[in-house]
User: Which sequence fits this backbone?
């Protein structure tokens, strides 16, 4: 089930005791993870016992407790459990851990303390809420807590081990892809692969909360002088370049734009695909790039990641049963859920036999936060010359907008 390697030392008295998940097909049962994912749990050795930092998904409990025991020995020596984030991929083992460590108390944000009973059966007297910035001596290790609301849930926080400078960031800076056996550090893995999947993870999981992400980055800048290692709960541990994940998040969260028009389309019989070709050539002739994506071929998870930094978006599609075809509708709905537009320009092109639905797509894009440009282009399946002229006019406008936005 897991890759089956043992605990790994991260720093003095700090150990990785996580697991690889290569059996789950979709993270949160929505986002494909063909190459798996890791759940990174940690444990700290103090002068007066141990502190567990987060846990793993319940189906990996045996592997997790085996690793934890290899470091701790008798689990009753665990005196504290830091719960940075309540989602079950990290706390599926919490109740069992508290049974095996009967003296352990839970260090959690105040919002988390209010939420924990909605997810787990934890006696109230074992829950110790901490405030933002608090420093707590936990079993002989001094820990500082840094609230990071909405990265990924409202209760989420990070924890800095002051002795070693290891910052446990939970979901933030995490990545899809299981860790190679025995190798958890950024200088031991194919980092480019993880960075690509860290972007998809960010866009899929955390990206809705861009303002919170930027707030958290500003807050982290104030403690980065003390941080030597970034230890997320998914993906590699950044010890050789702990600044890298912050720099990447800034690129992905800020409205940094590539001078490109993302051209999302679906074509049933090739008519729309031919329009896409003309549209693309016109965009490129104006000096912008066109990133063409067939949404029937790419899962929305990847479409989001690929279009996160596009300066503008165009959708081209045929009418289907008086509606937007389902694969494109999935993208537009997900764009809305993720508040993906961030004020970027967008355009709509529909071809049809008897009933265009351009307005519905424009409304969906507007709800997602895009600024939809005129003209809304509707073309017959065999387009008239005046209709094609409007297609090219929209291509011009989006190319200009993309170039202008990228210059800002
Ligand atoms: Fe990795 Fe929001 O859980």
Assistant:
């Amino acid at each position: 089930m897991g890759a089956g390697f043992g605990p790994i030392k991260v720093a003095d008295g700090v150990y990785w005791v996580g697991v690889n998940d290569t059996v789950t097909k979709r993270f949160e049962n929505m986002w494909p993870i063909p190459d798996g994912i890791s759940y990174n749990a940690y444990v700290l050795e103090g002068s007066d016992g141990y502190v567990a930092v987060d846990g793993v998904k319940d189906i990996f409990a045996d592997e997790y407790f085996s690793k934890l025991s290899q470091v701790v020995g008798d689990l009753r020596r665990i005196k504290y459990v830091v719960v940075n984030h309540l989602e079950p991929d990290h706390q599926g083992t919490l109740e069992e851990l508290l049974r095996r460590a009967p003296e352990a108390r839970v260090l959690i944000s105040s919002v988390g303390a209010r939420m924990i009973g909605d997810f787990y059966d934890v006696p109230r007297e074992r829950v110790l809420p901490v405030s933002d910035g608090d420093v707590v001596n936990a079993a002989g290790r001094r820990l500082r807590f840094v609230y990071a609301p909405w990265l990924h849930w409202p209760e989420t926080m990070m924890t800095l081990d002051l002795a070693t400078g290891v910052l446990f960031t939970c979901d933030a800076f995490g990545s899809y892809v299981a860790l190679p056996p025995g190798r958890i550090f950024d200088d031991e893995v194919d980092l480019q692969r993880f960075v690509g999947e860290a972007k998809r993870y960010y866009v899929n999981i955390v990206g809705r909360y861009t303002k919170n992400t930027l707030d958290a980055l500003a807050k982290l800048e104030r403690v980065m002088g003390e941080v030597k290692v970034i230890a997320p709960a998914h993906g590699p541990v950044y010890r050789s370049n702990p600044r890298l994940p912050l720099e990447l998040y800034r690129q992905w969260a800020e409205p940094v734009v590539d001078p490109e028009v993302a051209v999302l389309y679906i074509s049933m019989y090739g008519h729309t695909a031919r329009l896409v070709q003309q549209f693309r050539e016109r965009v490129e002739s104006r000096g912008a790039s066109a990133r063409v994506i067939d949404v029937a071929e790419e899962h929305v998870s990847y479409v989001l990641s690929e279009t996160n930094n596009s300066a503008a978006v165009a959708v081209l599609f045929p009418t289907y049963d008086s509606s937007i075809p389902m694969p494109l509708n999935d993208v537009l709905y997900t764009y809305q859920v993720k508040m993906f537009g961030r004020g970027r320009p967008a355009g709509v092109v529909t071809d049809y036999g008897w009933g265009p639905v351009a307005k519905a797509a424009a409304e969906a894009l507007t709800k997602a936060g895009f600024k939809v440009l005129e003209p809304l282009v509707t073309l017959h399946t065999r387009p008239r010359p005046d209709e094609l002229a409007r297609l090219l006019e929209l291509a011009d406008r989006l190319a200009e907008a993309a170039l202008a936005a990228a210059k800002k």
